[in-house]
Amino acid sequence: METGKVVVERAGGKSTATHCFSKYPLKFIIPNKVGPSQADAVWIYTIIDGGGIVSACTLSISLHKEMFGDGCTTVLTTQASTKCSEQVLE
User: Fold this and answer.
1) What single string gives the DSSP state of each residue in 27-61?
2) Checking CA distances to 77, which of 13, 34, 39, 67 falls within 20 to 30 Å?
3) What Cα–Cα distance (Å) separates residue 81 from each residue in 7, 9, 78, 90?
4) Which of 6-15, 39-48, 65-74, 76-85 has the lowest average pLDDT?
């Protein structure tokens, strides 16, 4: 059963997400701008939103050539990659 799919193609000379589908508990966030304006990459953040309902969730990602057009650049990451923690040692 497919719970999510993102298709990235070249549009207007840039890598662009042209199709995005996700089903609970999976979500995709694709911000319009990440990094410098000359960077040609689609950033895709994956989020699993179990809210305590899902006791264990595994994210399995299959990348297929037909999902990415020629010359496209995609960064696939999670929201956890933006979290920072500080540890103070005494």
Assistant:
1) EEE--S--S-TT---EEEEEEE--TTS-SS-----
2) 13
3) 22, 25, 6, 27
4) 76-85
CA max distance for the chain: 55
At residue 55, the pLDDT reads: 46
Coil, strand or helix at 79: helix
Element containing residue 16 per DSSP (H, E): strand 14-22
Residue at 58: amino acid letter? T
Task: Measure the CA–CA gap between 49 and 85, rounded to whole angstroms.
Answer: 21
Task: Give me the mean pLDDT over the 66-89 stretch.
Answer: 70
- Locus of tokens 């508990």: 25
